[in-house]
Write a structure and sequence with these properties.
Strand order of the largest sheet: 7-6-5-8-13-14
Largest sheet: 6 strands, parallel
Helix content: 40-55%
Number of helices: 20
Oligomer: single chain
């Protein structure tokens, strides 16, 4: 059996694809269960965070495993396999181990060196253990990944390069200023009470906000988080819990909003935020592409290809279609379509005289229509058009959810600053790498080699145990035969004979079994187990029984 990982992350896929492929807890559970039920896999675990979805499995066939895992990811994410495939990456055996160890150290994170990923790996392993989908390989792998991650953080200065996604997001909201100066005295609303939301609430409290309001669908969890914040003597922050139906009122009082829920749809629409801005200022929100209240009805058009207005028949589109600002077609080589049929490239409108050929336009419009038919809306471009004399922001929103909680159209509201996963990904691409990253990479390489050697050595252990068991059976049989032929021997003599025979067998087996373990730990050493079974004519079922016995005693305790 061999380790295989198939996944996608912020490094391989645009945020729009990650957002649509995000898996809730129930979907993750069903995915690992279906994976172990599939023929190529015997173990499975899912690592799902706000910027990655990875499926780990122990498979007996590489190509069949890749095909099966890719198909299962597509089925459970709801993204078509043909659309998902270009963004998937595959790692096998040592490369798969190297990948997970790098992830555990924060080398593959959006914010290099962040330590929150260790908790997410721990949760992933615990879920697989609860579902009994983690066997010897994945238990060893994930436990070792946690140890490697902790070693990297304790032995190097990777923490100087990394920080939590929450801290990085708050720094982006503060636009390069000191976060504590920016946060001091502000009122914060945290939507959600999970691990990321709890971290956000605690970080805001330490930064000096005057009040934290926690809203969650399960009110008890919101109350528990608010109580923890209130009882923290180091911050002295006021904290209270509200129900989700109170969020609209709280928006008009809050200065900072952090949202990270498991909702599959938007938690805050652009209209809701616009209404909150009006409630705060008492003035109509600036007309920058988003207005408070219900959106105006879209004009009816004749259908695809109408050049006078929008080339898409908006009347035929499913509810939820967004016509606010620029609209992008996900994954189409940066080709985007504006509301009034102006093609744009990298946010800059292209002159109509420089437009593509009619044939190319028709092809892109057809693809746009197919996208709308699939997802029900055109994804909003994150970057708004420049707005002349845009006022300084006074309302700050941080969206850490995947899929997103806050409508991206909020970017166009005057007086509002929105930071989301997409903008964090762009900002982190320009962040400097710490000098300690090279040291962490060396740690990862050393640990991968050690893990591979240990796994290869463990692979031959059942064969060695079966060999020693066979030798013990032979000794027992010969001693019994000797007892029958020499019944006059006393117990002391019998004991001496038994010990002598056992010593002879142990000495004969010691050197070859020690050496075969050493050889098996080296790259390409897997064949020594087969050689040993052939040379001593060991029963394959006996070896398999030893392996099963080892698996049954494998600890299932969760990592500390």
């Amino acid at each position: 059996m061999s380790l295989l990982v198939v996944g996608l992350s912020h490094r391989s896929a645009p945020v729009s694809v990650l957002e649509r492929a995000a898996l809730g807890t129930d979907a993750q559970i069903k995915l690992v269960q279906d994976t172990v039920a599939a023929e190529p896999a015997t173990e499975a675990a899912v690592l799902a965070t706000c910027n990655r979805i990875e499926l780990y499995a122990d498979v007996d066939k590489f190509h069949a495993g890749v095909a099966e895992l890719s198909t299962l990811l597509a089925q459970h994410s709801g993204v078509g396999l043909e659309e998902l495939t270009p963004y998937l990456y595959v790692h096998y055996e040592d490369r798969a181990v190297h990948h997970l160890f790098s992830v555990a150290c924060g080398l593959d994170s959006m914010v290099v060196g962040e330590g929150q990923i260790l908790g997410q790996i721990k949760d992933s392993l615990a879920r697989a253990q609860d579902l009994h989908t983690a066997g010897r390989l994945l238990n060893d792998l994930f436990q070792q990944a946690l140890r490697v991650g902790k070693r990297a953080h304790s032995e190097t200065g990777i923490d100087r390069a990394g920080q939590s996604l929450v801290t990085f997001g708050l720094e982006q909201l503060a636009a390069g200023g000191d976060v504590q100066d920016w946060a001091s005295g502000r009122k914060a609303l945290v939507i959600g009470a999970g691990s990321m939301s709890s971290l956000a609430a605690a970080t805001l409290a330490r930064a000096g906000v005057a009040e934290v309001v926690v809203a969650n669908r399960t009110f008890d969890r919101a109350e528990r988080l608010a109580r923890i914040l209130t009882e923290d003597e180091d911050t002295g922050v006021r904290a209270r819990a509200v129900r989700m139906d109170a969020v609209a009122d709280e928006l008009t009082r809050a200065d900072v909003v952090v949202s990270c829920t498991g909702a599959t749809g938007l938690v805050l629409t652009a209209e809701a935020v616009a209404q909150a801005v009006e409630g705060r200022t008492g003035q109509p929100v600036a007309d920058t592409g988003v207005t408070a209240g219900p959106p105006a009805a879209a004009p009816r058009h004749t259908g695809l290809g109408a050049d006078e207005n929008c080339p898409l028949d908006l009347a035929a589109v499913q509810p939820g279609f967004s016509v606010m600002g620029e609209a992008a077609v996900a994954g189409m080589d940066a080709a985007t379509l504006e509301q009034h049929a102006a093609w744009v490239d990298k946010g800059t409108t292209v002159d109509r005289r420089e437009r593509r050929t009619p044939e190319a336009d028709a092809e892109l419009i057809t693809a746009l229509a197919a996208t709308v038919a699939t997802v029900g809306r055109i994804p909003e471009r994150r970057r708004p058009e420049p707005v002349a004399e845009r006022p300084a922001p006074f309302f700050f929103l941080l969206d850490l959810a995947m899929p997103r909680d806050i409508d991206a159209a909020v970017h166009r509201l005057a007086g509002v600053r929105l930071v989301d996963i997409e903008s964090l990904a762009e900002a982190s691409a320009d962040a400097p790498m710490a000098a300690d990253v090279d040291q962490v990479r060396r740690i990862v390489s050393d640990e991968v080699a050690a893990f591979g050697a240990a796994q290869r050595a463990a692979h031959i252990t059942p064969t060695v145990v079966a060999l020693r068991t066979m030798a013990a059976d032979v000794v027992a049989g010969e001693i019994a035969r000797l007892d029958g032929r020499l019944p006059d021997l006393d117990e002391r003599q019998r004991g001496e004979i038994r010990q002598a025979v056992h010593r002879v067998v142990d000495k004969l087996l010691h050197a070859p079994t020690v050496r075969v373990k050493q050889l098996a730990a080296e790259p390409g050493g897997a064949g020594y187990a087969d050689a040993l079974r052939t040379l001593f004519d060991l029963d394959p079922e006996t070896v398999a029984a030893v392996s099963r016995a080892g698996d049954s005693t494998q600890t299932k305790d969760r990592p500390a």
